[in-house]
From TrEMBL:
<protein>
    <recommendedName>
        <fullName>Metallo-beta-lactamase domain-containing protein</fullName>
    </recommendedName>
</protein>
<dbReference type="InterPro" id="IPR036866">
    <property type="entry name" value="RibonucZ/Hydroxyglut_hydro"/>
</dbReference>
<dbReference type="InterPro" id="IPR001279">
    <property type="entry name" value="Metallo-B-lactamas"/>
</dbReference>
<dbReference type="Pfam" id="PF12706">
    <property type="entry name" value="Lactamase_B_2"/>
</dbReference>
<feature type="domain" description="Metallo-beta-lactamase">
    <location>
        <begin position="71"/>
        <end position="254"/>
    </location>
</feature>
Amino acid sequence: MIVFILCATIFSCSEYKTSNNNNFITVLGIAQDAGYPHIGCKKDCCNKNIGDNKYYVTSIGLTDIENEKYYLFEATPDIGEQIKYLKSGVANKKLIDGILLTHAHIGHYSGLMYLGREALGANKIPIYTMPRMKNFLENNGPWSQLISLDNVDLKEINHNQNIQLSNELIVIPFNVPHRDEFSETVGYKIIGKNKSALFIPDIDKWDLWKKSIVDEVKSVDYAFLDATFFSEDEINRSMKEIPHPFVLETIDIFMDEDLGTKNKIHFIHFNHTNPLLNQKINLRDSILKLGFNFAKFGDKYNL
């Protein structure tokens, strides 16, 4: 499989990197929950000079220019920098119009703490969350204090039920199988006037999902998919404890699909050990030549 990747010569296209549209997605982070460099990591992968590259924890932003609305998917530990970037040059004084959460693992919700008394002291920022996640936030500190102080306003959402953000923007949450210790886990389908996207930063394995990932990718224009680990022998821990679809597995699933389908896939949520995050140029180029893409901080995708 790896040999085939390294020898492939098909090139992908990249027309989505900037935006002049009314509605668009912005990549605000691509790293796994613990970020990069990783705490306690003394490996070469954490000791490199990352230069101007931004390796914030995985998040995407949704911009509605016409209605002057800005939404965040995930509340990461890097939420301050991510909102600052999303709204750079914007006169709108409101911090954010809503935050949509996927689940209760640290990189996806712990940024909520910066909305509280010790930091921003926000006023009823809408937080879109599934029922079990909502219950978790309501009944466990320090998150419950955000609610009692009216820093946040929890909006319950449900599997496969539309969230109408505007006349031209609809978001649909859907359950995916993952380690659900404290909450359910969802991905999102984001539907704009002209284009749509999938956002699935965490899932155990594609074949454990009731839906076909191939069919779901074909139904949208962009698919931001879990790329936590490149392969099985990447870390010195049992992968059964922290299952994710390996990038090699995802590539294999889509290998026989046409170039247009492969082009839709943008890998995201890279662990610090993933060689694709650490700029293994030859490896990245070989995957790009197969038609797949990599999410990059600051890239914009028209909807």
